[in-house]
Specification:
Helices cover 46% and strands 9% of the residues. α7 packs across α11. β4, α3 and β5 form a beta-alpha-beta unit. It is of the alpha/beta class. The strands form three sheets. Strands 5-4-3-6-8-7 form a six-stranded mixed sheet, sandwiched between helices. The protein has a domain of 239 residues: HUPs (Rossmann fold, 3-Layer(aba) Sandwich). It binds adenosine-5'-triphosphate (ATP). Adenosine-5'-triphosphate (ATP) binds next to α2 and β4. It comes from Plectus sambesii. Belongs to the TtcA family. CTU1/NCS6/ATPBD3 subfamily.
Length: 355
């Protein structure tokens, strides 16, 4: 029998993060305490905050909702929590995972708001994939989701958004941004709170939490989540980064934290020009070009030119300085959006690589 390193009882697992043998209850204690320390150490919340948890029904956001709800009570954060789900319109995937979110809403007694791509943009992902095929569809989905979460948060009147991005996700993003030479995103992607002026702050309380431990926690706690991969997401580039990091982790478990620390330690030399943040002339959301990536992509879909937002968008941006077509079904291009959210996309990057 292997003894628990903390209480000397019978160990039930070996922690992927540091190899400690722990019993279940000592693992729960360590897992929850570390997330609490991340929250407190980084001032993620203040009393009175209203926080929308991006709830996809997957393991990460389900564990996030469970743990935030628990810590909020245990440590009396005084924070109001709300679940916010975006229904991208992916039959056989998001409809099923949203059922898990609806069950969690009842289980945790938290309000839930669901926004759909169809109502926000006039298109479901099923329709987008039918139009453009499986290549590039993740670009549409990622850009629309980022803006949709902001729009949902403004609608709910919250002042913060929390997402379930974990340590593995962040290490992968660091690597991908290094390989792409994307300095602006490299600088941003390790930040635990993102969101420039005019945007709602977004935080990642699971930034230092290993994916394997999230899976273990969800499994031992018997949490209700949906575990199937997106049917439209080949996302080969992230897949390569993921495989590489898993290989590194096998040799050196700390590699994930080390990559995050390396990303955090990088700083951009003075004088290097970074994209400036402005407001999209079409929808009013924050953008790094005069027309935001969501509007460019939407224009492409609505005018039968779906690659408009995929190719170099400075060109597309010039094209879009013209007024939008009146036939658009989206409230983004028709009404100018709510004018208060934050789509901080970098239109020249083919995939969404920051959070
Ligand atoms: N459809 C959605 N609705 C609301 N929030 C979402 C949605 N998709 C993703 N998010 C948020 O963004 C985070 C990272 O999303 P990603 O697509 O990387 O999924 P993931 O790593 O599989 O996470 P999860 O296990 O929570 O689905 C999620 O944990 C969640 O907080």
């Amino acid at each position: 029998m292997v003894n628990c390193a903390k209480c000397n009882g019978q160990a039930a697992l070996k922690r992927p993060k540091n190899g400690d043998a722990l019993c279940r209850s000592c693992f729960f204690e360590a897992f929850e305490r570390e997330i609490h320390e991340t929250i407190v150490g980084n001032d993620l919340f203040v009393r009175g905050d209203s926080v929308a948890i991006g709830a996809s029904g997957g393991k990460d956001s389900t564990v996030l909702a469970h743990v935030l709800n628990l810590l909020n009570e245990r440590h009396d954060y005084g924070v109001k929590l709300v679940l916010l789900s975006i229904d991208e319109g992916i039959t056989g995937y998001r409809d099923d995972s949203l059922e898990a979110v609806k069950r969690n809403k009842l289980e945790y007694g938290l309000p839930l708001e669901i926004l759909t791509y169809k109502e926000l943009y006039g298109w479901t992902m099923d329709e987008i994939v039918a139009k453009i095929g499986l290549k590039n569809n993740c670009t549409f989905c990622g850009v629309f989701r980022r803006q949709a979460l902001d729009r949902g948060a403004w609608k709910l009147g919250v002042n913060k958004v929390a997402t379930g991005h974990n340590a593995d996700d962040i290490a992968e993003t660091v690597l991908m941004n290094v390989l792409r030479g994307d300095i602006a995103r490299l600088q941003r992607c390790t930040q635990i709170v993102t969101g420039q002026e005019g945007m709602l702050p977004r935080c990642k309380p699971l930034k230092y939490t290993y994916e394997k431990e999230i899976v273990m926690y969800a499994h031992f706690k018997k949490l209700d989540y949906f575990s199937t991969e997106c049917i439209y997401s080949p996302n080969a580039y992230r897949g390569h980064a993921r495989t590489y990091i898993k290989d590194l982790e096998r040799v050196r478990p700390r590699a994930i934290l080390d990559i995050i620390a390396s990303g955090e330690a990088l700083s951009v030399k003075e004088g290097v020009s970074l994209p400036t943040i402005t407001t999209c002339v079409r929808c009013g959301y924050i953008s790094s070009q005069s027309v935001c990536k969501a509007c460019v992509l939407l224009q492409g879909l609505n005018t039968n030119e779906p690659l408009l937002g995929i190719r170099k968008t400075s060109k597309a941006n010039k094209q879009l300085q013209r007024p939008p077509p009146t036939s658009s079904t989206s409230d983004v291009s028709q009404s100018g959006g709510c004018g208060s959210g934050g789509c901080a996309c970098n239109p020249d990057t083919p995939q969404s690589l920051d959070f």
